[in-house]
Design goal:
The protein is α/β, with parallel strands linked by helices and 303 residues long. The chain has helices at residues 14-26, 29-35, 40-54, 70-94, 108-125, 138-146, 200-211, 225-233, 277-292, and strands spanning 59-61, 66-68, 100-106, 129-135, 152-157, 168-179, 190-194, 216-221, 239-242, 250-253, 264-271. The chain is flat, with a radius of gyration of 24 Å.
């Protein structure tokens, strides 16, 4: 006697999986609805349908946000794998030319803020494309593109020394940063932490201090912003940093603290002449992503 076949299991829809992932990442139905280009009511209906299909609650809801339940956390891992597998399968047929290696450069400050999101998007959109990332100083990165060692790079520059005005993709503020409740900015001469001589932040900061006739000394050298933040947190110096790098245990210092305004600097994108189609596609995405990004954060309040 033949065994009876089990009833067919329901199929999970990829559109609903995308919505589920968006909610889990934003913690908010309305924000997720904007991300997936649906109305909040449509998103709520999708999740209701998903919970009814799986017969388990996926989110804990309160007045401010939603968080994943234990079942939701399990589903999230499956949902991401489903979307990634779908993208991989489709890319083999729809965009088979998007493979190979793209050599991308970025300074470490830009790398920390922007690269995770950029790399995530590239991996999900073109899973067959390998990204070879180089973290270096802006001057070395731009030279790497000119010499053909890199396909494209992000780099920092000041208005007076921009390499190519047409390639500016973003403007950000440069600010003095010290430890919250720290004393370094009160010392004379002023202890300053800087990068090497090729750093535009160093150039701008020292020029403004000299112009303002503020007595200072170089108290700390380091070629990465992580080293600079270590000096700030140790309260042995203050440093010029991009506004987006200021953390909760730091404070923005300004004219009320006797320090000159540092103004803004630009973030550019250089692309190697004769770059491959995948490299040009990556450059187009970075231009669009950075053009839409709002990097301005509220200034920290001085103690």
């Amino acid at each position: 006697m033949a065994n009876s076949l089990p009833a067919a299991l329901p199929l999970l829809e990829l559109d609903i999986m995308k919505t589920f992932i968006a909610i889990s990442e934003t913690g908010n139905f309305t924000t997720a609805a904007d991300a997936v280009f649906r109305t909040p009511s449509a998103v709520s209906m999708q999740i209701k349908k998903l919970e009814e299909t799986l017969r388990v609650p996926l989110f804990r809801r309160d007045a401010r946000s939603v968080t994943l339940t234990h079942h939701g956390e399990i589903l999230l891992a499956y949902a991401k794998r489903m979307i990634a597998l779908n993208n991989e399968a489709v890319s083999r047929f729809v965009v088979p030319e998007m493979n190979g290696i793209v050599k991308l450069g970025a300074p470490d400050d830009i790398g920390e803020l922007m690269l995770p999101g950029i790399l995530k998007h590239l991996s999900e959109t073109w899973p067959q494309l390998a990204i070879d990332v180089t973290i270096e100083s802006s001057a070395n990165l731009h030279r790497g593109v000119e010499e053909g060692r890199l396909d494209l790079t992000l780099y920092n520059f000041l208005n007076a020394v921009r390499a190519d005005p047409a390639e500016k993709v973003m403007t950000e503020r440069l600010v003095w940063v010290g430890k919250k409740h720290g004393q370094a900015h009160l010392k004379t001469p002023l202890p300053v932490s800087v990068w090497d001589s090729g750093c535009i932040w160093r150039t701008k900061a020292l020029e403004e201090l000299t112009k303002s006739e503020i007595e200072f000394r170089i108290a700390y050298f380091c070629g990465s912003h992580m080293g600079q933040t270590a000096a700030i947190r140790a309260d042995i110096a203050i440093a010029p940093l991009a506004r987006f790098l200021v953390r909760d245990d730091m404070v923005v210092l300004g004219e009320r603290d006797g320090l000159p305004d540092l103004g803004t600097y630009d973030i550019g994108l250089a692309v190697r002449q004769g770059a491959s189609q995948p490299a040009l596609a990556v450059a187009d995405y970075i231009r669009a992503a950075l053009g839409d990004m709002d990097m301005q954060q509220p200034a920290a309040v001085a103690a």
